[in-house]
Write a structure and sequence with these properties.
α2 packs across α5. The protein has a 4-stranded antiparallel beta sheet, covered by helices on one side. The protein is of the alpha+beta class. It starts with 12 loop residues before the first helix and ends with a helix. InterPro entries: NO_sig/Golgi_transp_ligand-bd, TRAPP_component, TRAPPC6/Trs33. Belongs to the TRAPP small subunits family. BET3 subfamily.
């Protein structure tokens, strides 16, 4: 009597591959180049979008479609000290370095970098947690980020993790790869300002992972000396974890 065929051969290999596709890796140098070019491209995109929004607002103001706002004392003082048409072409203030500009000008760029990082972080969480058991608490999630996620992204683990067990975490990396080669001829303040922009994307990745796992909070990169970076994570803990915190 002929033996029956094994049930494991009923499903073709192609279907098994589709259910669990092979991991596709990206070279580390290509990732660094992508981050640099992405930041530069999004800077131009953010500037164009901001200029377009201001132009539309001015057109709507001239057409009377939106009400005009009364000038505040600060804005009137700024307008009184602003250079005239002739001064605007000869004044040296127009040629001041970018480090002298307010940080609010980079806010559209930060927003775009963080949104892209959150999308990448969400994909990372789904991929790396596909065959893992559910995490017990937030500390286990942060350890997962410090080990598995950091190794997958930067080929190393986080150097230090601190927490007060009440939702505040600090992830410290002494050789943070995204800002390892950041420098500026304008000096240390401008270098740190640029480094904070390049650290926005990894901060978004961490926030995206936390959001996918059901945690809401903020992730703020702090840089005092390149290439050291500290990500300050403030998570809103569930009541069950808050009651167990010491």
């Amino acid at each position: 009597m002929a033996s029956r065929a094994s049930t494991s051969s009923i499903a073709p290999i192609s279907l098994a591959t589709l259910s669990d596709p092979p991991i596709k890796l990206v070279d580390g140098v290509a990732f660094d180049y992508f981050l640099v070019e992405m930041t530069s491209t999004l800077r131009e995109s953010a500037a164009f979008a901001t200029a377009r929004t201001k132009r539309i607002e001015n057109e709507m103001l001239e057409a009377g479609l939106i009400p005009t706002q009364a000038p505040t004392q600060a804005s009137s003082k700024k307008a009184s000290t602003a250079p005239g048409p002739r001064d605007s072409t000869t004044s040296l203030t127009s040629n001041r370095p970018k480090s002298a500009l307010v940080d609010e000008e980079d806010e559209p760029l930060r927003s775009r970098l963080e949104n892209i990082g959150m999308h990448v972080g969400s994909c990372f969480a789904e991929r790396l947690c596909a065959h893992r058991q559910p995490f017990d608490d937030t500390l286990e999630v942060m350890k997962f980020i410090c080990k598995d996620v950091w190794v997958a992204l930067f080929d190393k683990q986080v150097d230090n993790l601190r927490t007060n067990r009440r939702g505040m975490f600090q992830l410290s990396d002494a050789m943070f790869k995204p800002i390892l080669r950041v420098s500026s001829y304008l000096g240390r303040p401008e270098t740190i300002r640029k480094a904070k922009l390049y650290a926005t994307f990894p901060a978004g990745v961490v926030r995206g992972i936390l959001s996918t796992m059901g945690y809401s909070g903020t992730v703020v990169p702090e840089i005092t000396a390149v290439p050291q970076c500290t990500l300050k994570v403030n998570i809103k803990l569930p009541k069950s974890e808050m009651s167990g915190a010491v």
